[in-house]
Structures are given as structure tokens and as C-alpha cells.
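Example record for the data management plan.
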Amino acid sequence: MERGHYGEYSGNARHSRLKQDMIHERELIHDAKNEIHNEDQKYHAASRQGVNPDFRYDPVVGSDQNLDNSAEARFDSQYGMSPMRMSALKNRYTAPLTQSDRPSYTREKTSQQVIPGTTTSVETAVTSGNNAGTSTLKKARGGSTKTKLSNEQYMTNLSNSDKFKGKTGIEMAEANYISKSKIGQYDKIAGTSSQAGSTSSTSTVTTEPKIETVVKKDEIVSKNLGSGELLSAGQEVEKNRQNRYKAGRDERVNIAKKDSADAAQKYLKNRPINERNLVTAVQRGNDAGRSSLQGSGNDRHGNSRGSFNEKNYEFRFSRDEANAMFSRDIGRGRATVTDASRSKAKVGDDIPVSGGSYQGGRFLPSDVGGTANIGKKGKGKATVTSVNVDPGTAGSYGGHKTPDKYFGR
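Corresponding structural encoding:
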């Protein structure tokens, strides 16, 4: 049978241990909460005085950050406080308070007040008795009070002795000449008293009235923000503005991508998927994307399409930014001059070229190696060497960067 905490050997030992552990944990919780409350009071008291409280904890590193190696780490949430919360409360006091730099001055107001005089009675006790001023008797040798005489005759002889004349019963008992139970009887025989008398005297202490000067000091602090507070507030405003601007521009790009995709899909609807239609669809999609980036950001009813209350086209992109994201140069080609008839170019020059009117002024990737008309009335000739198919950083051919990749070539 196992021995329990509360009594002799019994089968209740396990229950006793659990109860003891529960009591111990409650004590730990109580002590920790008291400590946190006390530190919190100190922190707020120092904050109200405008000073930096000098009670920072040591830096917490490693496992100490979560109190893993302390008794608090054993706290379970069912007891009201987890180790994580304990760590957060502990680290709360590591942040220093900031001093206010608001203009201020100390206003002094001097006044005088009369402190009235006082009269105080002081009572002094004076003790007197027959044993006052007497010398102490030496103790009797042997310390024995046994005698063949009767007690009364023995004490009478003592009181009549020159050695003990005037001695009180207490003095005789302390010197072991009589027992303490005979003190009263001895005093009666010797005519002495062991009870000290006491008297008291009363005196009066008087203080004179006086005038006291009192200086009251009040600190008057500006109601307007100090330079540090203004800087902090300004930085916060600018940070919010920058974050809003970035979010608004990112949203503009997403709207432009959707408009571009819608325009391309609209063109391709009920048309065969070939190189010409694909390139034309991307061109129209890029036109829609650029328009969304450079536009007002409103729909056809004048309502903002964004989520951040855009005013005065603040999220609008410039022409160059829009062209870089949704290229307007798709289908533009370059060619080498082979016949410079009626052209300012010379044979062998590398010049930009555009397609004929039947191509909408654009070349297709398959036109590379073909012939382009140049010069006045198209009398000159040039061989196409390259065609720009880059859709821009935000455009694509159905998720691909070139028509060849779209068609799997």
C-alpha cells in the first residue's frame, strides 16, 4: 500500500499527489499574476511622470524567450495563462518610453500662510519608594533560609539588625535571606514597603505662531505636437500614402490585364485561331490595356473601378510606362535595303519597316525573309530580317510570350 500526503498508508495516495500538484500550480499562477500586476503598475506610474522606467528585464534569448526552462512554462491554458502569453507580457516592458519634446515652462506662484501656535500638555511620571537610593545587598552565603527560629522571630531579628535596617522585603528576598512568599510579612514586621509609589507632574509646551512661504509649481505644456511627434506623425502619413499609392497602382495593372484579356477574347470569338488573328488579338488587347493604365480609372458611368477612392487620376500610368507594359510595337519589323529606288536609304542599310495596308501596317513572324516595299510609291525593295512580337511586361499570347510558343512551335 502506498503512503499518501494526508495520513497513513492508504489507497488514496494517487489522488493526494494530484491534489498537491494542482495546489502547487495554482500558487505559481497566483505569484506570477501578482508580479505582472506590480510591474504593470510601476510601468504606468513611470509613464504618467514622463520618465523612462528603470526596470527593464534582461534580454530574453533562446529557450528563455518562451519561458521553456522556467516554472511558468508549465502553465496550461486551463489555468488561465499560457507560456506564450507570459512571454508576451514579459517582453512588453523591454520597449523604452519616448520623451515628449513639446515646448513647456514651469509657472511658479508664491503665497504665504499663517501656521497658528500650539499649546501642549506634557505629563511626567515620578517614581518614589522606601527602596529608592539604597544599595544592593550581597546574597547570603549558601543561599539558604532554613533556621530553627519561627519565621516571625527570624524576620524580626533580621529587621532589628544594623546590617538590614531599612531594607525592604524585596531586597531581602533577592539576597536569599527570606523567601519571596514572605516579602509582605517582612515588610509588615520591618515597617518598610516594597511597593514603589508613583506621582506625575504636568508641564505645558507652547509654540509661537509663524508665517510660512509656499511656492506652488505647475508645468505648462504646449497643447500642440512637438517636433519629434510631428516627424513621427508625418512619417506615418507618408508611409500610409505610399502604401495606398502602391496598392492603387497594382490594382490598376490588374484591371488593365483583365481589360486586355477581354478585348483579345472578344476579337477571337468565332474566328479561326491562326497566326494573323492571334497577333491581331494581342494588339487589340494591348490597346485596351494601355487605355486602362492611362485613363481616369472610372467606368462608363463615371464610377471608380478601383477600391481605394482614387482622385484626380492619381494612380494613372504615363505613356512610356503603359507602352512598356502593353507594347504598341507588335508587328513592327526591320529590313535590309536591296533596292534603293526612290528612297533616301542606301542599299545594305538596316531600316524599320511596316506592313502593307492589308496587314494593318504590321508584319507577322512568318514574314521574316520576305520582301517589303520601301521608298516613294513602293518602288524600292528590302528583305525583312526581324519582326517584333514582344507583348510587353504585362501582355501575353494566351499566357505565352511569343506566337510560336502559343502554337507549340
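Summary line stored alongside the record: The CA atoms of residues 26 and 344 lie 97 Å apart.
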